[in-house]
Amino acid sequence: MLFTKSLIRLIAVMLIALLLYSCSPFVSRHVKKVPPYPFAGKTLRLIWDKKGINNLYMSEITLSDSTLSGNVEAYQHKGYDKRKDTLVNLYMDPKSSPPDSLPGKVTLPLSQITRIEVYDFSIGVVILDVVLVGIGLVVVASILVLLLKESCPFIYTYDGETYDFTGEIYSGAVYPNLERDDYLPLPGFKQVNQQYQLKMTNQVREIQSTNLAELLIINHPIGSQVLVDKYGKCHTIQLLHSPKTAYASDNTNVLPLIAAQDNQKFLSNASETPKQKMNSLTLDFERPQGADTANLVVRAKNSFWLDITLGQFFNMFGDKYNTWYQKQKNTPASQQQQWSLEQGIPLSVYVEKHGKWEFVDYFNVIGPMAEKDVVMPIDLSGLDADTIKLKLECGFMFWEIDHVAMDFSPQQQVEQQFISLSSGTDHNGLDVKSLLNKDDKDYFVMPDIDNQAILVYDAPPLPDNESRTVFLHSKGHYEVLRDPEGKPNVTYLKSFLKPGKLNQFSRDRYDATLKQARN
Hints:
Elements: H1 5-21, E1 44-48, E2 53-64, E3 67-74, E4 86-92, E5 104-109, E6 113-120, E7 125-131, H2 136-148, E8 154-158, E9 163-168, E10 180-185, E11 195-201, E12 206-221, E13 225-228, E14 234-237, E15 240-241, E16 245-248, H3 255-258, E17 266-267, E18 279-286, E19 293-302, H4 304-315, H5 321-328, H6 333-342, E20 347-353, E21 356-363, E22 372-379, E23 387-394, E24 399-407, E25 415-419, E26 423-426, H7 433-436, E27 444-446, E28 452-458, E29 466-480, H8 490-494, H9 501-518
Parallel strand pairs: 1-4
Antiparallel strand pairs: 1-2, 2-3, 3-5, 4-6, 6-7, 8-9, 8-11, 10-29, 11-28, 12-25, 12-27, 12-29, 13-14, 15-24, 16-18, 17-24, 18-23, 19-22, 19-24, 20-21, 20-23, 26-28
């Protein structure tokens, strides 16, 4: 793999930034521009995927020009992975060779790194995941993530010993009038002592107001899968078909990135697309004979860059931000949703019919912390072609897409059951069950960082010869706490009423950030 000198410098800057900021609770902090010991006390795990070598750890690290140096040892016990601080995983080029003898001093050229992944044990989740193959721009964006993160309630599932991070709920509901239902899949969620147990937390500067938190339990035939769309309708999935072709809006072949669920992702950052146009992913699927309906299944998440772009946009309101925010609460939800669509924030889906793109629907914002499987039914009636052509469209670098597939199988019978809380206790030991068991005007509010609630549900018996999938059905909204300063540029802000302006703003800020980093 060949890297330009400028990209090597960017990677070096990123490594320093990761090690400085990875323990930050997602709030700004002042640091020296060039710290003397950026790697002090940190550990890097070196991974050669194809060679099955995953337990080599580098410590006492120094960075000189384009080379990392440090002591490398092999650790066989799992306890080393359960450190209290942040662990940085470095995925190595499979063409490179691991050290011949251990322990020992090792010199590592940065050009051999193909992927950087940062795991924060305080959250229990990967907070940064970047593939370093031809994407120098992504490096710059990721440096800012740990300082500017915004989110919504985090959900953890309990396995009898630990709570494991699963995802976020009602992402994008940043005003009360945008409150919506959310159906979060809880894959592999197991009952413990005939109960399901969750933890819901607030870990950012937000006021999170949850109206409802119940389980949707679906029993379905063995060998099938189920997904729930944004309207709450269940869809059975039996046989996923990958696309025949997949091209980005700059005609780059991205089929290897989205053909399977793996560590490769399509990031909507086609630089050759005109700035006034959205980025897109165009896919061709082979249509089985007689198929008039299908389910589009996408595994994706929002990018951290979307959070950064929206944060910069909101900050432009300066000392008038809070006044503007209060006005938004009285703006019709349909008007806000339309603006969001026109700016490319959701992931829009189109199908080609008679040579023209026809809008189908859109996927709601998912959030950047964890991928989510989402489903959308596609009506194929009226199509006379043997090939189905779909287009996924969004703003510049707003979505990361891991997998896209279609299922043409008929709907199977399932049994659905909503389960209310048997108990709910917040961080102060107060009972919050009554606040979360009904969709009403009573909310469980988490106004501060580290607020949380433990949610327990009684598990109904599982019928013989059936599988079970559990979803968290929630409803709520949240307010991001901001304190921007300065006077707003009202004329410039009004330009964001034009469709696609946020998409163009994202590109412009991206280019400016890259230029600044290179200088």
